Amino acid sequence: MTDQTECDRLDRRRRAFIEAARELFVRLGYERTTLGEIVDRAGGSLATVYKLFGNKEGILEVVVFEKASSGATLVREAAEKGGTPQEILHRLAVSFQAHFLDPEVVALVRIVIARSVSNKDFARRFFERTATRTLDSLQQLFADWQDGGIELNAPPHILAELFLGLFVSDVHADAISHRVGMDNSLERLRARTQFFVMGSGVLENKNANISFEGSNGL
Amino acid sequence: MTDQTECDRLDRRRRAFIEAARELFVRLGYERTTLGEIVDRAGGSLATVYKLFGNKEGILEVVVFEKASSGATLVREAAEKGGTPQEILHRLAVSFQAHFLDPEVVALVRIVIARSVSNKDFARRFFERTATRTLDSLQQLFADWQDGGIELNAPPHILAELFLGLFVSDVHADAISHRVGMDNSLERLRARTQFFVMGSGVLENKNANISFEGSNGL
DNA sequence: ACAAGGGCGTAATATCTATTACATCTTCGC
DNA sequence: GCGAAGATGTAATAGATATTACGCCCTTGT
Question: Does any strand D atom come closer than 7 Å to the Cβ of B32?
Answer without folding.
Answer: yes
